[in-house]
Amino acid sequence: MNDLNELFSLLAKEKKVAKEKDNIIKENISKDLSSLLDELKVLKSTEPVEVPKETPTISLEPIKENISKDLNSLFAELSSLKSSKKVETLVEVKPLPTPVGEVPPAAQSPAVANLPNIDKYLKSPQFQDTPEISASDKELKQINQKLKFLEQWIGKINNAGPGSGEVNLRYLDDVDRPTIYDMRYLRYNDAKKKFEFAEVNPHDIVYTTTLVTTPTYTVTDQDYYVGVNYDGTTTITLPTTPSSGRMIIIKDESGNAETNPITCVGTVDNDTGGFIIQINNGAIQLIYRNGWRII
Asked: Can you list the alpha helix ranges (DSSP code H) found in the chain?
């Protein structure tokens, strides 16, 4: 977080320095324009200048040289300003205040009123060929937004740890998507190194077997085979609301069911009384579908 704060601080300083530099450049441009316009007025003036005979003839060459220097300085300042900011109000040239005693532009002579427009200098190849660097307030704002977004995500990762953020199992990379169908179970395929959905096959499932050595026992959700080996009568209670297709096998392993019968409590084949195993080594296989059914 300290690094981010330092980055924001540096960006603010750079922005402040760039703004101060632009203000200096604009002031220089304003001065150059003022000097340029004054010299152009002298050069373009159609009014004859009465020169005393004693005074030597005034040469216009120095004025032309000054104008050339002012133009070069102006182009340099404008190029610098254009490089530091994007072309978004590149130069805001405001009308210079009319000096006291000078005729406003509307009342000036045609020669002065028809001075060259500065727009043509801005559109000149020398000015247009300068490189454009898009460092602007808008881009700085976007950088700040991205850094803020990054800071928020760093906070989330710090609190919850890294992750893809995916919440749907079927879109994970280690799931074999073509195998996804209804009524299938999820298993791992080591050959593919992926999880896949497979059809329910009783021969592929390892069922839980339970040995009963007490007078009573209630079948659990994990039981598949229940073997009874108790020296006495035994009562087995069946689940009342199992999943459809649930199968259970109950077997007399003691071989003495005739002497020690096994009573199964529950509704079986629409009989609420259940059934009794009273044959030595006898067994019953049940499946649940709208009630327990003997098969």
From this structure: 2-44, 61-84, 110-113, 118-122, 125-128, 137-160
